[in-house]
Amino acid sequence: MTGAFAGRDAAEVDALVTDRYLETLLGAHARGADGGPSGAVPPDQIRSAARRLARDLPRLHPSFLFEEALAARLSEAASRMLSPASTGEPGRMVSLADDALADDALADDDEPAHEHHLTGRPWLLGGALTSAALSLAGAAYVAWRLNRPSSDPLLRAARVVARTRPV
Amino acid sequence: MARPAFWKVDRPEEGGPRLVHLDRDRRLVEAALADPARFEALYRKYLAQVYSYAFYELGDHHEAEDATEGAFLAALANLGRFEERARPADGEGASTFRVWLFQIARNAVAQRRRRQRRRRETPLEIANGVAATIDVEGDAVLHDSAAEAWRAVERLPDDRRRALILRFVDEMSTAEIAGVLGRSEGAVRVLIHRALRSVARDLDDPSR
Is the ipTM here above 0.90? Predict the structure, then answer.
């Protein structure tokens, strides 16, 4: 054996011949032409079955209503995804509870079946909130609270004690 | 049909030059990443393919619609995580948007299947549903032929049937099917060859 068939066992060679035949057949089918195979061809039975399937397994289309309803849902989801930078609006909390289907579809097919919807779990979209930002915001808040004069006499007394206490 | 673009590269270990996919959807994906509303172009382009795959897998229009919806919502929400690996250097791990989308669809279908509470339609009902699309032309012979072909496919083990559907209905290349199913191209070729052999035997057997 030579070329692409070198070093392959009989099953692999048969599979490769069938694959090349299908490439020609389906390519011609897509162009609406007759698929005239060249080179090695698979047995008659396989060629006949392949031609049958190419002709008899149609691609299906969902209903127009479904198509438009899903288009609207995607459009709605897309508008929620727009970043604050592009809209000039602040980030907002949205619930992804309705998008449980989307979450499921990403889960690994091989994982055991389990329910893991995001019901009620809020996500911040359109704004990057990192741990560093949280730390800076927290420090600024504490500093502001410490320097802000309090109307509570007990709190004022506690601050005086804290400031005069030796470190 | 949206056939993928190819790039010829030299792969001596594969017995000479081979064809590697380039992602024809790159511009659409980039547009959708910049403006999620433009995901609609990808949705319209692949709706029938994803829906067909789901219907042939689930055998129920409602279930197929649910799986299709889940797949597209997930694809939109996670588009930023899509990583095109369609350069020749990526070899067998090549992944185009279509492959990525079908990986999501495959998971959506698998999960619908596990949750499927409704009675699954019989192969005959599915066959009639498939063949009904041909009835528009009023050709009874074609209708029977389509029903018979589908019955032969439906009897295949899951992995063989899935590979055939992706090859014949969605018109994917072996490399793309390998990407969707997470197998090597060689394994997919053997899977399809054996599936066709089974279908051929089935169609030749008048007792079935």
Answer: no
Per residue in A46-98, pLDDT tens?
898 999 898 888 888 999 999 999 999 999 999 988 755 545 444 443 433 34
Chain A nearest-CA residue for B148: A56
Closest CA to A52 of B147, B116, B36: B147
Domain ranges of chain A: 3-56, 64-129, 132-164
Shortest Cα distance, chain A CAs vs residue B22, angstroms? 17
Q: Could you tell me the pTM of the whole model?
A: 0.66
Contact A77 B61 (CB under 8 A): no
Report the residue from B16, B164, B197 with minimal CB separation from A3. B16
Contact flag A106-B74 (C-beta cutoff 8 Å): yes
For the stretch B87-127, pLDDT in tens is 555 555 557 899 999 999 999 999 998 877 555 555 555 56
Q: Are the Cβ atoms of A15 and B74 closer than 8 angstroms?
A: no
Q: Which two tokens stand for residue B162?
A: 């899935």
Q: Tell me whether residues A75 and B174 touch, CB distance under 8 A.
A: no
Give CATH superfamily name and number for B5-120+155-204: PhyR, sigma-like (SL) domain (1.20.140.160)
**CA gap B82, B101 in Å, rounded:** 9
Name the phi and psi angles at B19, rounded to 5: -100, 135
Q: How far is CA A152 from each of CA A148, A155, A163, B11, rounded to the nearest angstrom?
A: 11, 5, 17, 79
